[in-house]
């Protein structure tokens, strides 16, 4: 049972890492950031100028930003 | 600009009033405790480091001193890894202590500028993978292959020692300095530190260098795909696969990157297998057996279209595929080398190291080894990455050592493995593949006669060896497949088939390797064109304001066309060059890359000097001096040498004189047209060499000037952003040290709502 749990933990680690390196966790990070931002905003009176993007909007916005700000790849 | 913020000794009495414990928990370890931990040499630690040193020393002895018939590949891997570990543990820590002086109480841009998008604190291990994927490309795979003609030892020493003292130092410094400046680019830092003249020269040099690098990478891929229906099919299929992936992510399942990457990977493998069938079919031989010029035009047209299409459609999905393939293939090759442990029968130092008459790349060991192997030992291009995305994602200052220095060590290991793969194939086959068609005539008989005529000891090439290998890897021919990529693919397939599949699988592994390299290169071509286009638009914008608006279509298209035309012209020059192409152009690639490194190091030197750290200036001055001497002397040889094989203008003169004398063939040029092409090409190459070296000398001189000025003024200034109090904590290296573990446990025990404190703006 502990072996199985260990394997499962290892597998979860690999998936977590792969997703991180490929950048799949970008939306989660964005949502977390937005939540903490809203918390502060609520303290100082709240604002609605940065509504939370939906997942689809976020990914569109991400590639559109790459269009405007290209990054080189190495040789 | 806070001169006050520059002092970051890590003690608690600071004018900036940064706190180690701003709220409930510490955001940085006590520097005393850190230092104490480093000084504490337990018996276990001593035993481990003694073992590493002994194994490393033994490996170097096996490589450099013991002269057997053969040397086992495993010693390359051990020598590399042990040296990297020692360099990382001792030299990078020394640099950290005396130059970098990180302060975990300071928030990184990812914290104080956090926007959840471009600036977002990323786990250090994930960011290491990101950064590595961004810096590792075709360069470390190709350069070592070409340098293998000098024997195994010079390349090995330069890759391993060069990375520890130069390459990784550059990456580390640039990453850290850019992070301290909110993620500023190398160009901006050059302007800040070196003034208008140095900054402008650095900017123009970067643009020209980018064009050359893209052109030569494209030349490598052209050479790998010419006369290869299999390669054309499987690499060509990456385009529809990437388009499919892009649409899937855009319209069907946004954000499911891992899922679509796995689907894409399966499709890629299917494309490689399909390529084998196409290769055997009649239509494949009729329509996909293309010559170099056709392939080159294909890449030029592709490059233009790819660079104006939206990122989501082609670039982003191919990037995912490329990352996936990169990590997988490099891991696979490492495992295979350790298990198979191929024997290498190449001499330690070959006769070409001193004679300079090697057919692969002309020139003697000094300086040409150091420009042929650019990436893997010292790569200026990394400075652009280390001052791009990565500094905006770092969680804590102390992590730059692991990501910057450590990431480059990984790339160096890739270069060592590429070298081993190239060395493991028969030496006769190596020279038959890497000598230009001008020398071999492009035929099996010609190649056999040429290679055996080189008079190399232990080399006895037969026609069967070449035709058998060509059949095994599923190619029409392997004669004069210059550029390094096909050689690496043969080496990789030679190693992999011993592990999986045997001879019948060689063709699959060969085309797998070609696909893997082509993916990187096509992504680099596309991304490089985009970056160059933005730089051009930005410069043009100073005269025609309309160009500044990068979403103005006609402007974007015109600027893209100009950049594609620039690298396309060099590419076409390379494929039609009667002298061979790779052997004349590759030095230009290496020189360009190393000059960029010299520029980056010059900027770093100015920064270190301005902070008043003169006692440790040698840490930067040493690699800068070496890179400057190597590249400037290589450039001068290319410009002034009177040997036609080495000097561009000497070659130019030889051919112009022959033309003037009314000769109708000269050297390897069979007719007047080819002779005129040589005259044209050598002039362009010579002029490019002059532009590079002049711009770089300007940058280096302005950096020296800035350094001297700083010394006279006893400067203690900095152009860093003001220090901001950090609110978060994360460990520095891959493995947590005991003091880090204790603090991390305290943070883990915090209730969730207290942990998220990244606010930004």
**Low-pLDDT residue spans of chain B:** 1-15
- The oligomeric state of the chains shown is heterodimer
Helical fraction of chain A? over 70%
Radius of gyration of chain A: 18 Å
Strand runs of chain A, count: 0
Net shape of chain A? flat
Helix amount of chain B, in percent?
55-70%
The N- and C-terminal alpha carbons of chain A lie at a distance of 47 Å
Structure description:
The complex is a heterodimer of chains A (75) and B (761). Chain A has 75 residues and is mainly α. Chain A has a domain of 45 residues. Chain A is 71% helix and 0% strand. Chain A is flat. The relative contact order of chain A is 0.07. The model of chain A has no long low-confidence stretch (mean pLDDT 84). In chain B, strands 1-2 form a two-stranded antiparallel ribbon. By secondary structure, chain B is an all-alpha fold. In chain B, helix 13 crosses helix 17.
Summarize the structure.
Helices cover 71% and strands 0% of the residues of chain A.
Structural features:
heterodimer, A: 75 residues, mainly alpha, 71% helix, B: 761 residues, two-stranded antiparallel sheet, disordered N terminus
Give the helix/strand layout.
The complex is a heterodimer of chains A (75) and B (761).
Chain A: H1 2-22, H2 26-43, H3 55-68
Chain B: H1 31-39, H2 43-64, E1 71-72, H3 74-100, H4 109-112, H5 124-135, H6 139-147, H7 152-180, H8 186-225, H9 229-252, H10 257-280, H11 282-287, H12 292-308, H13 315-340, E2 343-344, H14 352-355, H15 365-372, H16 381-386, H17 400-423, H18 427-434, H19 437-440, H20 444-453, H21 463-472, H22 485-499, H23 506-540, H24 553-576, H25 582-610, H26 618-640, H27 648-660, H28 672-712, H29 738-748, H30 752-755
Antiparallel strand pairs in B: 1-2
Helix pairs in contact in B: 2-3, 3-7, 3-17, 5-17, 6-17, 7-17, 7-25, 7-26, 8-12, 8-23, 8-24, 8-25, 8-28, 9-10, 9-13, 9-23, 10-13, 10-23, 12-23, 12-24, 13-17, 13-22, 13-23, 15-25, 15-26, 17-22, 18-20, 22-23, 23-24, 25-26, 25-28, 26-28, 27-28
């Amino acid at each position: 049972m502990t072996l199985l749990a260990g394997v499962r933990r290892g597998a979860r680690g690999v998936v977590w890492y792969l997703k991180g390196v490929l950048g799949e966790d970008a939306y989660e990070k964005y949502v977390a950031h937005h939540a903490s931002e809203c918390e502060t905003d609520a303290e100082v009176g709240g604002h609605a100028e940065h509504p939370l993007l939906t997942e689809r909007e976020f990914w569109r916005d991400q590639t559109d930003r790459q269009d405007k700000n290209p990054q080189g790849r190495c040789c | 600009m806070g001169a006050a913020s520059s002092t970051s000794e890590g003690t608690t009495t600071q004018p900036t009033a940064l706190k180690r414990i701003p709220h409930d928990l510490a955001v940085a370890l006590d520097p005393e405790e850190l230092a104490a931990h480093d000084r504490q040499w337990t018996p276990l630690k001593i035993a481990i480091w003694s073992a590493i040193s002994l194994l490393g020393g033994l490996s170097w002895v096996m490589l450099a001193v013991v002269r057997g018939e053969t040397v086992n590949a495993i010693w390359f891997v051990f020598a590399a890894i042990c040296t990297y570990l020692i360099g990382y543990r001792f030299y990078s820590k020394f640099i950290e202590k005396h130059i970098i002086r990180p302060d975990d109480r300071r928030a990184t841009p990812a914290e104080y500028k956090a926007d959840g998008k471009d600036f977002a604190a990323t786990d250090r291990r994930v960011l290491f993978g990101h950064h590595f994927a961004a810096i590792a490309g075709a360069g470390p795979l190709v350069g070592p292959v070409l340098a293998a003609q000098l024997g195994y030892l010079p390349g090995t020493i330069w890759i391993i020692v060069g990375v520890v003292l130069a390459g990784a130092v550059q990456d580390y410094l640039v990453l850290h300095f850019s992070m301290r400046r909110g993620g500023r680019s190398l160009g901006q830092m050059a302007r800040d530190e070196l003034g208008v003249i140095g900054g402008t020269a650095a900017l123009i040099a970067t643009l020209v260098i980018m064009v050359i690098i893209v052109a030569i990478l494209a030349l490598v891929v052209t050479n790998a795909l010419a006369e290869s229906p299999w390669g054309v099919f499987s690499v060509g299929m990456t385009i529809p696969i990437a388009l499919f992936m892009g649409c899937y992510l855009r319209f069907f399942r946004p954000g499911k990157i891992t899922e679509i990457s796995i689907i894409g990977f399966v499709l890629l493998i299917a494309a490689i297998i399909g390529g084998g069938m196409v290769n055997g079919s009649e239509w494949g031989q009729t329509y996909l057996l293309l010559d170099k010029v056709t392939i080159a035009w294909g890449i030029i047209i592709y490059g233009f279209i790819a660079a104006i299409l939206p990122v989501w459609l082609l670039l982003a999905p191919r990037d995912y595929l490329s990352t996936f393939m990169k990590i997988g293939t490099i891991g696979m090759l490492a495992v295979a080398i350790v298990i198979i442990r191929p024997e290498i029968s190449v001499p330690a130092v070959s006769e070409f190291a001193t004679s300079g008459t090697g057919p692969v790349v002309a020139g003697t060991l000094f300086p040409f080894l150091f420009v042929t192997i650019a990436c893997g030992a010292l790569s200026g291009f990394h400075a652009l990455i280390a001052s791009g995305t990565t500094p905006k994602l770092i969680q804590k200052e102390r992590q730059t050592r692991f990501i910057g220095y450590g990431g480059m060590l990984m790339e160096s290991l890739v270069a060592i493995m590429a070298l081993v793969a190239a060395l493991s194939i028969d030496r006769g086959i190596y020279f038959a593949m890497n000598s230009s068609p001008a020398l071999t005539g492009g035929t099996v008989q010609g190649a056999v006669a040429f290679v055996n005529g080189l008079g190399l000891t232990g080399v006895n090439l037969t026609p069967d060896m070449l035709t058998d290998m060509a059949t095994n890897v599923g190619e029409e021919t392997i004669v004069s497949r210059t550029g390094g990529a096909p050689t690496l693919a043969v080496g990789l397939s030679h190693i992999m088939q011993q592990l999986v599949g045997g001879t019948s699988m060689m063709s699959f592994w060969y085309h797998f390797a070609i696909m893997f390299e082509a993916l990187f290169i096509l992504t680099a071509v596309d991304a490089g064109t985009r970056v160059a286009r933005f730089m051009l638009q930005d410069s043009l914008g100073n005269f025609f304001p309309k160009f500044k608006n990068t979403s103005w279509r006609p402007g974007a298209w015109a600027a893209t066309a100009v950049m594609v035309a620039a690298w396309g012209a060099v590419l076409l020059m390379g494929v039609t060059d009667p002298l061979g192409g790779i052997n004349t152009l590759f030095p230009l690639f290496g020189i360009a890359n190393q000059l960029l490194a010299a520029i980056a190091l010059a900027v770093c030197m100015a920064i270190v000097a301005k902070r008043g750290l003169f006692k440790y200036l040698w840490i930067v001055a040493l690699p800068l001096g070496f890179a400057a001497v190597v590249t400037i002397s290589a450039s001068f040889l290319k410009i002034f040498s009177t040997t036609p094989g080495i000097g561009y203008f000497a070659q130019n003169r030889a051919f112009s004189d022959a033309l003037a004398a009314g000769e109708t063939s000269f050297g390897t040029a069979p007719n007047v047209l080819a002779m005129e092409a040589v005259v044209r090409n050598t002039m362009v190459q010579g002029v490019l060499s002059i532009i590079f070296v002049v711009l770089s000398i300007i940058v280096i001189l302005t950096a020296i000037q800035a350094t001297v000025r700083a010394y006279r003024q006893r400067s203690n200034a900095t152009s860093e952003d003001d220090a901001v109090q950090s609110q978060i904590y994360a460990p520095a290296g891959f493995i947590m040290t005991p003091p880090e573990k204790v603090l991390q446990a305290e943070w883990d025990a915090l209730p969730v709502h207290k942990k998220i404190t990244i606010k930004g703006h």
